[in-house]
Amino acid sequence: MSQISLDPENWAEFRQxxxxxxxxxxxxxxxxxxxxxxxxxxxxxxxxxSDSSIPWQGEGEAAVYEQFLADxxxxxxxxTSPRHFGWVHGNGFPFAMMAExxxxxxxxxxxxxxxxxxxxxRQVVExxxxxxxFPEGASGLLLxxxxxxxxxxxxxxxxxxxxxxxxxxxLRPLPRMMVYGATETHSWAKKSIEVLGLGRQSxxxxxxxxHYTMDIARxxxxxxxxxxxxxxxxxVIGTAGTVNTGATDDLNALAxxxxxxxxxxxxDGAFGxxxxxxxxxxxxxxGMERADSLAFDLHKWMYLPFxxxxxxxxxxxxxRAAFSQSASYLATLERGVAAGGFPFADLxxxxxxxxxxxxxxxxxxxxxxxxxxxxxxxxxxxxxxxADLIRKEPELxxxxxxxxxxxxxxxxxxxxxxxxxxxxxxxxxLRLQEEGIAIPSSTTIxxxxxxxxxxxxxxxxxxxxxxxVASIIMLAKRIKNGRTVS
Length: 486
Ligand SMILES: *Cc1c(COP(=O)(O)O)cnc(C)c1O
Hints:
Elements: H1 11-30, H2 43-50, H3 61-72, E1 84-85, H4 94-106, H5 116-132, E2 139-143, H6 146-161, H7 166-169, E3 177-182, H8 188-195, E4 203-206, H9 216-228, E5 232-239, H10 251-261, E6 264-268, E7 293-297, E8 309-313, H11 316-323, H12 357-367, H13 369-392, E9 396-398, E10 406-411, H14 418-434, E11 439-445, E12 448-454, H15 462-481
Parallel strand pairs: 1-11, 3-4, 3-5, 5-6, 6-7
Antiparallel strand pairs: 2-8, 7-8, 9-10, 10-12, 11-12
Helix pairs in contact: 4-12, 5-12, 6-8, 6-11, 13-15, 14-15
The structure holds pyridoxal-5'-phosphate.
The site of pyridoxal-5'-phosphate (PLP) has 15 residues, from helix 6.
């Protein structure tokens, strides 16, 4: 039989190509500030990337790499740019990029295996446990993103709160187990509640107050109402840093209520939980350490490249009890490669898991968590700086408080109606993006369109923020002169 494999046929040639790939990737990051924040794909690129013919025959590594440079690399969503402020996207950074290369080289399998990679993941989770103020005995797991981490937490919560063995029997229709969150709760909650079989009717979204945080009195009322009609209140979801405005629920009040009522307290801290890394702002998320479970991303406000998130569960045994299996092909022997078993697979849905811990471990050790805390604090100061620019500019107005790193605002013109203002602000946002000036995103605040700047960007400079204000005024003038607004 002829010998075939996927290793290079000519290592010397491949090594040259690989070095070129690394150098060009580094060049691309190093020059990010010189490029527009975003550029649109041309029709020819779109046509090549839509070609549905299967590549049965290979073109060679070098040829495909050239196509990557021409057709793929220039056309992402711009999250590496110092002027990207959309959604909640981190930037990534070069050292973590290199760590991903090393993790890929090792191709470690993280179902468990009690060797160095597992110890690296445990160490990262342990640092996070301490930073977030969870007790010893809490368990944790790295996951792909906040949605998966929150989903996994809700699965543990559902099982822990069911008054019968839900793993054995499945979900009983009665009594209906109720989950509570604010109207500002992120959309992972609905998706997860549906997938976990609880049904959308089991999710009560509690109105928020003028600071966009959950109205605790109304939460209490909803719980009383549900008990009175025979439902079973089970889980309260608090948010540390909402995606719309960066608001944080009163986590201590939610913890008190959950204790009093025997409810599971989950905190979605996708980006807000990372305030715990900052000495000056950790008080904002006080009470988070009392949660039964906490989910947060490391690819947002820790700037690591996608994907990586973390879940912590206060009662480690309950966490395992939701997922552990004893399949014969996974039986643990006391010695050999599989000694130590597959503990990570017992904490979530995934069996095969990659070594995403390495980029976090190497980066945290290289730069120190104090540096990450300083970057987080700087982003908050930048948001406050930007909010001040808006307050000083008569043609712009803030749409909501700026408690953290998110600024919702719009262009205003007293001669325009609310509808016309919506149309004008949509057009301003699209031109900011399409002309590659900057990438804010948008949201709806009190039924009005708002331009939304969310700063989880370690590359942003004050000059980038000043330039956005000037660009918006200029764009608004141009759009109004062009009569694009009907
Ligand atoms: C981003 C975000 C999520 C979802 O996290 P992903 O990493 O995108 O899956 C959940 N909740 C909040 C508050 C978020 O900002």
